[in-house]
Every structure is written in C-alpha cells, then in structure tokens.
UniProtKB/TrEMBL annotation:
Membrane topology classification: Multi-pass membrane protein
Protein name as catalogued: Protein DedA
Keyword Isomerase among UniProt keywords: no
GO CC term, one of those recorded: plasma membrane
Entry's transmembrane regions: 21-48, 54-78, 156-177, 189-206
Family per similarity comment: Belongs to the DedA family.
PANTHER family: INNER MEMBRANE PROTEIN DEDA-RELATED (PTHR30353), TRANSMEMBRANE PROTEIN (PTHR30353:SF0)
Boundaries of every VTT domain copy: 49-174
Subcellular location: Cell membrane
Keywords annotated in UniProt: Cell membrane, Membrane, Transmembrane, Transmembrane helix
Organism from which the protein derives: Polaromonas vacuolata
Top-level taxon in the UniProt lineage: Bacteria
Length: 222
C-alpha cells in the first residue's frame, strides 16, 4: 500500500520529485528517466508508470537549465524506441497465447482488449497514436507483435511515434512548463494528461465493440 501511495504521489508531483533527484544525484537523472520510459513502453506489466507528464516536466526542467534539452530528448527518444521494440518482441514471441490470459495483478486483459480493438480498426497508425495515450502506449507494441506486424513496418511507426511523442511533449514543457499559470496548475494538467486520453481510448474501444456487435447481429439475421 505504501508503494502505491508513493507511486501516486510521484506521478502527481513528478516535478518536485524530479527536481529533488537532480539536486541529490545530478547527471544520474538521465539514467533514471531512460529506465522509466523504457520500462513504461517496454514491459506490458508496467503501464502505470508516468509518461506524458514526465516528459512535460523534463522539458520544464530543461527550460530553467537544470537539464540539457538535446541530451534529454535524444536519450528519451532512444528509450521510447527501444522500449517499443522490446514490447513488440515479447508480443511476437508469445503470440496468440495472450488471448487466453485472464486478469491478474500483472496483466490487465481489459486494457489489452481495448488496445487490440483499436489496433484492428486503425492498423499501424495505432503505434503512433497510442504514444499519446496512457496504457494504450504500453499495450500497442505488444499487440502489434501478437498480430505479427512485420518488424520493418513496426519500426517505421515506432520511430515516427517516438519522435513525435518525446520531441513534442518535451518541447511543450520546455516552452510552456515554466509559465506561471502552468506551474500553478501543474497538478491539474497532469490529471488531464492522464485521464483525457484514457477517456478517448475507452470511448473508441466501446464504439468499436458496439459496431462489431451491430454487424454481428445484422449478419445473424441474414
């Protein structure tokens, strides 16, 4: 329970925790950030780690000179791409077996089904779009591996999405993270970055499921 409480506090106040870490450990912050982004995108059992909010705060730290902007963007881009590649490889290895898995402490089958539904509908562009969606970001490369997307095609979408995600959000934090209004309402912005994309993907999954049921009902009447 203490771990959950600390993790929630870290996500909601990532700016304070990150600044404290920089003051205490200096350049080791780059290794920590690389690890967080790699694990969040690379291991299907770790979708709850901060992603968008972390990148935004990193940009804000770069804006005030606490971190190097080009180094942060470069390292986190590599972490994001490598994480997706690792996740894809895991999905490709396990293949269709995952459809038989049930909910557990380490695997959220509902989130997987939602990502799979989104992937089936939109194909490779899902890899790019999911970068900006918590939970879907973790499951999309895994689903691509399960669905046997070719490595070359996946890599194209992986690199494109990683560049847009890391470069876009870190840059947003760099230019806007230290605006007084943003700093005063950062906790609310973090909540929005977590829940708004989540609501969108839930709505998309629900709509896709409803359309599938409608199509199934129509075909059964014929």
């Amino acid at each position: 329970m203490e771990i959950v409480t600390y993790l929630l506090d870290f996500i909601l106040h990532v700016d304070k925790h990150l600044e404290t870490f920089i003051v205490s450990y200096g350049a080791w912050v780059y290794a920590l950030l690389f690890l967080i982004i790699f694990v969040e995108t690379g291991l299907v059992v770790m979708p709850f780690l901060p992603g968008d909010s972390l990148l935004f705060v990193v940009g804000a730290m770069c804006g005030v000179g606490l971190m190097s902007y080009p180094l942060a963007v470069g390292l986190l881009f590599v972490a994001a791409v490598m994480g997706n590649q690792c996740n894809y490889a895991i999905g490709h290895y396990f293949g269709p077996k995952v459809f038989q898995w049930e909910d557990s402490k380490f695997f959220n089958k509902k989130a997987f089904d939602q990502a799979h539904s989104f992937y089936e509908r939109y194909g490779g562009i899902t890899i790019v779009a999911a970068r900006f969606m918590p939970f879907a970001r973790t499951f999309a490369p895994f689903v691509a591996g399960v669905s046997r997307m070719t490595r070359s095609k996946f890599t194209f979408y992986d690199v494109t999405g990683g560049a847009l995600w890391v470069g876009g959000i870190v840059s947003a934090g760099y230019f806007f993270g230290n605006v007084p209004f943003v700093k005063a309402h950062l906790d609310k912005i973090i909540w929005a970055m977590i829940f708004v994309p989540g609501v969108l993907i839930l709505f998309g999954a629900w709509k896709a499921r409803r359309n599938a049921r409608t199509a199934e009902a129509l075909s059964s009447k014929e």
